[in-house]
Each structure stands twice: as structure tokens, then as C-alpha cells.
Design brief:
11 strands, alpha/beta, 5-stranded mixed beta sheet, globular
Length: 337
């Protein structure tokens, strides 16, 4: 009798169990758990996917490099150390050459427009080979990055001579060299310690990052010039994506692409505006004169031409891709502004 009841109970439980076990996705990034990025981009994305997927998917967010270092983000997604990684393609020099066109100065004025243009570039298929070994969820940029120095104000091009400045990527490093500075490569989370030790005199970052990494504690001077904009990707281990249940995959797909690209870009714009307003009150924000701005722009144009020529010489469609991005920027400005 009891054996029959037990068997019946087992059959009943089996009939109500889900056909596919719940998928768990580990989402790794290098911003702090208290950063706006953690809430606006990562936690909100996790919540949106879980809501769309019902009981089919659980997203766990790992901030502050707790699931892999920033510079290894892409490889961590490739190998499955993380299921999803948010990282900077340019942290791996030469690996994503067409994506790094987005870093070139003067292309756009806001993170929202830059993100829209980068997503359009990705959606066009131009970057398929660069990301063939992962599954891209969305891409974006931050708003243009500016120059921040600890002790020396930079008001002229000559003021940059010999300054050791943190650069995020090799492409931005070439621009700094053209400007007369000495670029020092490192991921953003390493900037505070390097500045504190005197290993660098300043750094290139967007406004919000001065706040996110507490760099205002060590930085007095901030020179406004759109030196670059960093490209970011949110990408997933390909095998993990392909193994998702239909419900979980649909939830991920519904939260991929343009909407999240622009959400991330706008987040940088809004956070940056608040940081700039505070820095104007608490430190020294330097506006370049028209004459000096023209000198900076000439150097930036030379750096851009050099990078596009480099791509062309490698047999890559540098000119074609750059011109496409310029067109995407125009479309995005008309749509978003």
C-alpha cells in the first residue's frame, strides 16, 4: 500500500516538474556594487530578463572584478569563467580593430548617440568576425572622455609635454603621443592606485568615472576636450546561450540590442552631467581657448587619419567603416536629440 502511494506521489511530482531546469546566468563586470552602472545596467538587465523569462532563468550579478579581472573580460566570456561579461574590447590591443574606431575623437558628443551608432555598426554585420566566438547582447559607449590631472593644469597643448597619463587603450595612447604626452596603459580600476603612487600625472576618463572611481580625491584639474569615447560590449558565452531553454533564450533575446545600448549610453550622460556640475564647484574645470582647441583638434585629426590608414594597410575596411559610423551618428542624432 505505502509503496503504491509513494510511487503515485513520485509520478505526480514528475508530472508537475519543469521540463527544463532553471538556467542560471552569471553576469560579471568591473564596476563597484554601489556604482550607478551596477544598478542601471546590470541589476536592471537581470531583473528584466528574469521577469521576461518567468521561472526559466536566474541572473546573478558579480561586480567589482569578483568573477574575473577587467582586462580578461572577453576571454572570461569565451571560456565560460563568466556566462556574461561586460568589458572593453580595447583592453586587448589589436584584437577588435574595427570596434575601436568608436574610440576616435570627435565622432559624437553624447554617450546615447555613440551607443546608438555602435549598436548600428554591430547590427550591420561589420563586426561579426571580431566577435565570432561569443554571443553579443548589446554594445555601447560612454560619453566623450576628458583630461584630469593631479597637480598641473593643462590649458595649452604645450602643457601636455612629458605628462604621464593613463590611457585606456592603445588607440587612445596613439592620440596622447600625438599630443605630446606619455601614455601609460591600464584598466580604469587601477587608476586610483597609480595616481596615488605618483606613477601617473593624470588620466583620460569621462566625467562620471571621476566619481565612480573616487578619483576626485586625487585630482584638482579637469580639462574639457572630447579626447575619445570608450567602446563597451556585453557578451555571452556562446555555448551557454545555445544551451538555454527556449523560454530563457527568448528572455535574453528580448533584452538584447538597441534599447539596452541607449540605456547604458544615457546612463553615462546623466551621471556625467551631475559629476561635472559638482566638479565645477569643488575643483578647477578648464575650458580651452579657441586657439588652443584648434591645436588639440588638429592633433586629434592626425591621430584619426593615422589609425584609419593603419586599418587600411592591414587589409581591413578602415575608411569604409569609419564613414559608416559617421553616417550612423547622424542618424542617431536625428533620432535621439
Amino acid at each position: 500500500m505505502w509503496q503504491k502511494l509513494s510511487l503515485a506521489g513520485t509520478v505526480a511530482l514528475a508530472s508537475t516538474a519543469p521540463l527544463h531546469a532553471q538556467d542560471t546566468l552569471r553576469y560579471a563586470h568591473f564596476m563597484s556594487a554601489t556604482s550607478w552602472q551596477n544598478e542601471v545596467i546590470f541589476e536592471n538587465w537581470a531583473a528584466a530578463v528574469e521577469e521576461a523569462g518567468g521561472d526559466s532563468v536566474d541572473v546573478q550579478v558579480f561586480p567589482a572584478q569578483t568573477l574575473g579581472k577587467a582586462a580578461a573580460g572577453y576571454d572570461n566570456a569565451v571560456t565560460g569563467v563568466a556566462d556574461i561579461a561586460w568589458t572593453v574590447p580595447g583592453y586587448t590591443a589589436g584584437r577588435f580593430p574595427l570596434s575601436q574606431i568608436m574610440e576616435l575623437p570627435g565622432l559624437f558628443d553624447t554617450g546615447a548617440v555613440g551607443s546608438c551608432a555602435f549598436q548600428m555598426l554591430y547590427d550591420s554585420g561589420a563586426l561579426d568576425e571580431e566577435y565570432a566566438d561569443t554571443h553579443i547582447l548589446f554594445v555601447h559607449t560612454h560619453d566623450p572622455g576628458h583630461l584630469h590631472t593631479a597637480d598641473k593644469p593643462v590649458e595649452t597643448l604645450e602643457d601636455l609635454a612629458g605628462l604621464k597619463l593613463r590611457r585606456p587603450t592603445q588607440v587612445v595612447g596613439e592620440l596622447l603621443t600625438e599630443l605630446g604626452a606619455e601614455p601609460v596603459g591600464m584598466p580604469a580600476p587601477n587608476t586610483y592606485e597609480s595616481l596615488q603612487r605618483g606613477a601617473i600625472d593624470g588620466y583620460m576618463l569621462p566625467w562620471e568615472s571621476v566619481d565612480s572611481f573616487r578619483l576626485d580625491e586625487l585630482t584638482e584639474y579637469h580639462t574639457i576636450f572630447g579626447f575619445y569615447a570608450l567602446a563597451f560590449i556585453s557578451t555571452m558565452n556562446k555555448a551557454k546561450y545555445e544551451a538555454l531553454s527556449p523560454e530563457a533564450k527568448a528572455a535574453v533575446d528580448a533584452n538584447s540590442g538597441m534599447d539596452w545600448a541607449v540605456t547604458a549610453g544615457r546612463g553615462y550622460d546623466e551621471a556625467g552631467a551631475a559629476t561635472l556640475a559638482r566638479l565645477r564647484e569643488e575643483s578647477t574645470v578648464i575650458e580651452l581657448s579657441d586657439e588652443e582647441r584648434a591645436k588639440f583638434e588638429a592633433a586629434a585629426e592626425t591621430a584619426t587619419e593615422s589609425y584609419i590608414s593603419f586599418l587600411n594597410e592591414q587589409g581591413l575596411p578602415g575608411t569604409e567603416t569609419y564613414e559608416a559610423v559617421v553616417g550612423y551618428v547622424s542618424e542617431c542624432e536625428a533620432e535621439l536629440n
